[in-house]
Amino acid sequence: MVQSTPSSSTLTIGELQAGYPLYCKALRMLIREAKTMEQIKRSVCWHRLTTLHACMPRQYKDPEHLYFHLRREVNQ
Length: 76
Fold this sequence. Notes:
Blueprint: H1 13-32, H2 37-41, H3 44-55, H4 63-75
């Protein structure tokens, strides 16, 4: 049996960057499922997108910006 420690569950910036396309895809799926903004803000993908934006704001847009962009894209 493998025990999980707090340090083993944290991701590095490199791991977060590698998962960026998946987080965007998950956000798009939540939008298609008509989840509320409150529900989306509690999701794992939202927290990881927020972390990326906080660490590298020039490279990764604010999750709220992504949300509105993807919502417009889904509604077209």
